[in-house]
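hiii, so i know i said id send this last week but things got crazy w the move. better late than never?? heres the sequnce for the chain we talked about at the cafe, plus the structure i predicted for it. fair warning i was half asleep when i ran it
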Amino acid sequence: MPIAFPSRRAALFEPSPISQNSTQTNLQKTKWYWIAFITVVINTLVFRKIVEAYSRLLFFWFFVSGRFARPAKSKHCTDATHIRQGDL
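okay and structure toks below
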């Protein structure tokens, strides 16, 4: 079965993709590139703020939990009378 090519008459009335206004297409592409770029920048800034806030929260949590934690009971004797002289 032969391959059907469009007739010349149809080609005269239907604009080919190459003969379309290329500046409009380029502007549309550029617009989408700018939208994607701005979206990435905004997401990066928001993500940085979230990470910053979370790190502050973690720092505060560790600071508070260490500050108000019960002092650990020492397993070693604090009396130094039994320590040999060479260990001092």
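btw The radius of gyration is 37 Å. thought thatd interest u
miss u guys!!
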